Amino acid sequence: MDLDYTHTYAADPQRVVGLLRNADFIADVARHAGATEHSVDITDEASTLTMSLPVPASIAKFVGSTMKLKQVFRFGEPAADGSIRGTVDVDVPGMPVDVNANAAMLPQGDGTTQGRYTGDLKVKIPLVGKKVESQVEPYIRQAFAGLERRAADWLSR
User: Fold this and answer.
1) pTM for the structure as a whole
2) N or C terminus: fewer CB in 10 A for the chain?
């Protein structure tokens, strides 16, 4: 299933990426997502958030009452035009679910950044994989939307 999410951030790309490399910010994202537990690991190469989230009843029969998500954000250096490109990968440990997205932080000339996340969601379960994808996708969309909401709050401070 194709994914395509666009966010608007009230800061330049370097500040947005700096936020995604901030352990306190990443932990805040987990708390506001309703994580029952989480861990954050920040290195020079990546920001990793691992969290357990309660799941809607509609997919609980497939994944259980909570779903563990591991999100890995990787960003390179700014390009000459100020844009910063990277990747966001989401893994669901123990489940045949993969999300791989390209990320582009694009300066908009008015001090804002357009964050563009494009990629795919794959559920590798014979016969029901496509059905599970359509049930998991809103959950993944909510995770990305939560990131945008928390960034808006942090960037307004």
Assistant:
1) 0.88
2) C
